[in-house]
């Protein structure tokens, strides 16, 4: 038997949000719909690469970095002047305090099979104390990969979705003004070698490792292309014998990624977000035999002040007297009984019937798991 009595914290007015995965129709355990292979796997060696670079944004309307607090912005600007053949006198260089320049970090994702000349999107983020990048222009910025090689060069006008204004000590801001994007703002300068271009077998990597799904993918491929073409190496990898010719290799993968497979039903899992009070229950969640006692204890303290005023001709003094009222309320606990194999429908309806708050529901599920009555994985995020 499982008993749970909640205290005063259960009276907080938090909205109970329960998302039911796979239980929107009849709360039953619906069969898993067939999926194409492309939605279940990714091809080994076919991946995007992260790029990063440091640059300068110019043309800001007085919202750039403050030179005295961010000296590297001025240093970067002087270095750029020297590369362009502009040599400032030392007296001018040491007193240079531009307000329309900001140091930024530029990031981008280089997609697989990107070739020189293609363009990619970039994100520009301030790293100094600039208040806004709106209206700024990013100067030529090399974007490098993890190996230190330059794979793209970014430049262009920045699009900032945020807006901010201030006057006389008052300010207002919508969204973020210190980060923006440049659509198609970088040109690819170097291609990344892909494992897909190398002859030999290919590996199909499952997004969600599953022995059953891996075996089914291998069976479907063998039925379509001949036995021995695919082999399930483990729960996360299916290896296929692909042709060496590039054109045949592409057609081979095109056939595979459009095959339909019935993936394994997801494991029974309950995900709890304690910060927002969100509880997600999977479709296969069931309970063993248990009983749950749910009740709330609330203590309300109210206080008001009364003024005691003496007669005008009296010798007394005016005093303030507090009047405190304490109320304690403890509703009768509601006992819920669950038979073995109870499905999601009964669990949700019963917990909603007793009016469980998010904190109550989280505590009930944790206690059920500790008692061995909850037949599901409990994950708290």
TrEMBL record:
Keywords annotated in UniProt: Bacterial flagellum, Cell projection, Cilium, Flagellum, Periplasm, Signal
Molecular-function annotations in GO: structural molecule activity
Pfam families: FlgI
Chief location of this protein within or outside the cell: periplasm
Compartments (UniProt record): Periplasm; Bacterial flagellum basal body
Family matches, as InterPro entries: Flag_FlgI (IPR001782)
Species lineage: Bacteria, Pseudomonadati, Pseudomonadota, Acidithiobacillia, Acidithiobacillales
Protein family membership: Belongs to the FlgI family.
GO cellular component: bacterial-type flagellum basal body, distal rod, P ring; outer membrane-bounded periplasmic space
Complexes and interactors: The basal body constitutes a major portion of the flagellar organelle and consists of four rings (L,P,S, and M) mounted on a central rod.
Descriptive protein name: Flagellar P-ring protein
One GO-annotated biological process of the protein: bacterial-type flagellum-dependent cell motility
Role this protein plays: Assembles around the rod to form the L-ring and probably protects the motor/basal body from shearing forces during rotation.
